[in-house]
Amino acid sequence: MTESASPTGFRCGYIAIVGRPNVGKSTLMNALIGAKVSITSRKAQTTRHRITGIQTTEDTQFIYVDTPGFQTRHSNALNKTLNRTVTNTLTASDVILFIIEAGTFGPADQQVLDLIPKDVPCILVINKSDRVKDKAVLMPFAQQIASKHSFSAVVPVSAKLHFQLDHLQSEIRDRLSENAPIFGEDDITDRSEKFLAAEIVREKVFRFVGEELPYTSTVLIEKFEQEGNLRRVFAAILVQRDTHKSMVIGQKGARLKDISTQARLDMEKLFGGPVYLEVWVKVKSGWADNEAGLRAYGYE
After folding, report:
1. Domain 193-296 belongs to what architecture?
2. Per residue in 275-289, pLDDT tens?
């Protein structure tokens, strides 16, 4: 963190990114800060933690907080913990970005919207707007959703194509107070490299295994060492059953090799140096059945 005084007119604040699972919250945050600090996957509920992404410009420090998608379908310990993370983040934020998918608004979206405090500026962000072929229907859709809450602004975007992200950040800045920066100008996240390494491996697990593997599977970094510019990472993929272990390993270890290779390449890009990565799979049945177990594996 930095103790330096802010220049006149400098603004800084926390921006919560919320929405139902799979509307592109992590993709949006990564696009806004220009680096991959929150993992993405087609599998719903990939994000399990509060992930902070930081972008500092000449006159503003944007501190984005990517939250888990609010869960409404099941009430197990994991989902209760994830939902508590969402609600705690909302009340502590200076601005809220409520993310929906263009052309789609259902009960799950409404349940998240109902959680948003009335006294915190909230911007309606309509993501994936590039997928709407008939742009004439986008305006009536936006007006319909805007009538459900006192939004400070409505901004259609495409996080994937970086469409209108500058406009979105301008709207955010207008709603931040004058404050000194909280983080250093080169910081892009408050998470450790060890945490980011685990998240990168977990993303690759879901990308290569897909819907076959329960989202309760996770990754534990058992050793993280750095010698000069070289990082040595030893990661264990924790699953609940032997059948899940076989899914991750694949035929003759091919799938695990793909997971390891792609994870290593992402780590090298993010960390800016060579990475030696070893990954193996362990069966840890019952670890996600209670909140104590969740906390032991880093859930908040």
Report:
1. 2-Layer Sandwich (3.30)
2. 999 999 998 865 444
